[in-house]
Structure formats: structure tokens, C-alpha cells
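INTERNAL AUDIT FORM
Audit reference: QA-55
Scope: verify that the stored structure record matches its stored sequence.
Auditor: D.O.
Record contents follow.
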Amino acid sequence: MLYYLFEYLDKHYNLAGAGLFQYISFRSAMSFIVSLLFSTIYGKRIIDYLQLKQVGESVRDLGLEGQVEKAGTPTMGGIIIILATLIPVLLFAQVDNVYIVILIITTLWMGTIGFIDDYIKIFRKNKEGLKGRFKILGQVTLGIFVGAMLYFHPSVTMKEKLPLKYQYTTEEGTPVLFAKAKKSTKTTIPFFKNNELEYADVLNVFGEGFKDYAWIIFIPIVIFIITAVSNGANLTDGIDGLAAGSSAIIVLTLGIFTWVSGNIIFANYLDVMYIPNSGEMTVFIAAFVGALIGFLWYNTYPAQVFMGDTGSLTIGGIIAVLAIAVRKELLIPILAGVFFVETLSVIFQVSYFKYTKKKFGVGKRIFKMSPLHHHYQKSGYHESKIVTRFWIIGIMLAVLTIVTLKLR
């Protein structure tokens, strides 16, 4: 809202300083500051309110050290993250930007699914929460919406860099380095020189005319990524600070890719896709990172609040949408490697247990417990050490992801 106010003041009254709001860098910085202040200052009030309403975590005894002491700790703390993200975004972002619209709806939609799940667990005393099929239905619905918006909305385009011999300079002296904006389902393949994959090419086996139906390929891919990443974030949220800290690292890295992809100068220099209007997502990302860091103030060991599914499902959904929007979804297994490994540990554990039970009559396990962080807890590691080491791994993966900008 402030963006439009100061744009009006700058245009009609030439107010000193109002022009700053035209710069994404300034609005991102303000968004981060407001988000961080809100989550740290008002976060405590929200935690006190959750305690007053007895919104406490009910803990199943899994034999983990320090687990019993966590019983009664307020959950649904994802509300802090959601509010601390949306308030600065509404203040400083261009809310009519298609990418901002998609991200706001993603935040509210996934937050609602997570809230319902937490509500059932706490107030209905049902430890299973929202039935899995309804969670999946919600994630699939969001995937259809996001995929359709990114495919059909006229403002979602990209510009391909022209070959050197086709680049030229206008009569006004402006260099023309990119072709005209067009619809595309291209994405980036990491570590390859000519690293663009066109999803529509999959339909070439049916004939050239089928490229117009690329949404048949694109939308299911979007659904799969959103479902996988949101569930991965949910599985990672098992010990104090792990999900929030890992997510902050991932989102900050995506912010770099967003900044580069939305800036024609950097896109040209680094030879990456130029995606018009996508730079505005940097304002959202700055708010989101501020919210996650502010939430960590209360979520690091010993946690004063848990994010619950209200937070973890929302975080995963936002990360997935950001990666898809900036055409870096194939980097998710690297960038979100912590989520990826946590998810694989559960898949391997369950699959191996079922296989051995069917074959030998007795189920065997690969890990002492899954997800993976619980395996290390069972092995005697303190959760603070586990979290810190997972963060370090996350930073290493983030650096590797950034390096893919040049390493091809």
C-alpha cells in the first residue's frame, strides 16, 4: 500500500525521498526490517496468547531425550511467520504483481490447511490431525492454481538472450540484448552450458502442434513439486529451530536467483533467463526471511513455541512456488537438500520395513528412527548439535546452488 501512496506523492507532488519506493532494493530492505521487528516484538504476544488459549503441543513418547519436557509448549506458531510475512508485503510490494498475488494466495492457502490440521490435533484431541487425503487435495488444488497462473497469465513471460550477431543498438543508443517477451515453459538445468529444458518438447513425439498443450506436462510437475516440498518441510520440523533455520537459508538463496532473474543487467551478465516482473518477489522473500529469523528468536533450543503444520506446510509451499516461478525447480534437490534427505529417510525406512516384514515376517529398519534427525537423536546427539550441523550442511548446499550460476 505504501508503494502506491509514495508513487502518487512522487508523481503529483514531487515529495523528497518518495522516489525511493520505486527501488526494489529499498523496499526489500524495509520489508525485511518490518518483518523482523514484528516477529520478534509481537511474536512474544502471540505466544502468550497461544498459552492463554492452551494451544499446547501434545507429545507422543517416542523415547527421545528431552521430549517429555516439550509437552505443553505452544504450537501454531506458524501464525507469527505468516503475519510477519504478509504485513510488510502488503505495505511495500506491488500487490497487483502476478507473482506477489500467487505468493500471497499460496501463503494463505497452505496456512489454512496447516491451521486446520493443528486445530484438529489440539482442540479435537485427534493426534492424526487432518486426514492425509485432504492435505494432498489441498496441495493438489494449490498446484493446479499456481501452474495455471504461471502458464496462462499474460504477465508471466520470459525473454531469451539474442545470439551475439542479432544483438543491436537502437537509434536512442539503447542496447537490445534480449528477444521480445513470450510465454514459455522453459526451466534451468544445473551444471550444463546450454542449460534450458523446454517442458513442451516432451510433446514433440505427438507432433509439433501439441506444443500448445504444454500445460498438460507443466501443471502436473508444479503439483508434484509443491506437494513434495511442503511435505518435506513438514517432516523436517521435528526439533527446535531445524525447519525455520534451514528454510531461511533456502529462501535467502532463492532471493539471489530472483534478484538476478528479474534484473536485465545481471541476467545478461550471468547468461540466465530474464523473467520480467519477477524481481518484485524479492520484496516478498525479504519479508519471509525476516519472519523466519524473527521466529527463530523463540524457536531455537529450548523452543518457546513450535510452528506446527500452520508454519511447516506454508514454508514448504512458498519455497516450491518461488523455485518454480524463477525457473529453478530442478535445483530443489540440491538447495533443499535437507528437506530432500529427511523425506528420503522416511521413504526408505517405511519401504524397507514393509519389504522385510513381507519377506522375513519381521520388519527391519535402516535407521534407528525416521526422519533422519530423530536417528541422530537416538544415537545420542543433542538436538542443538544436530540442528547446527544441518544448518551448516544447508549453507554448503546453498553455496553450491549459487555456484551453478557460473559452473556449467
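Auditor finding: record pair retrieved intact. The longest strand covers residues 186-188.
Action required: none
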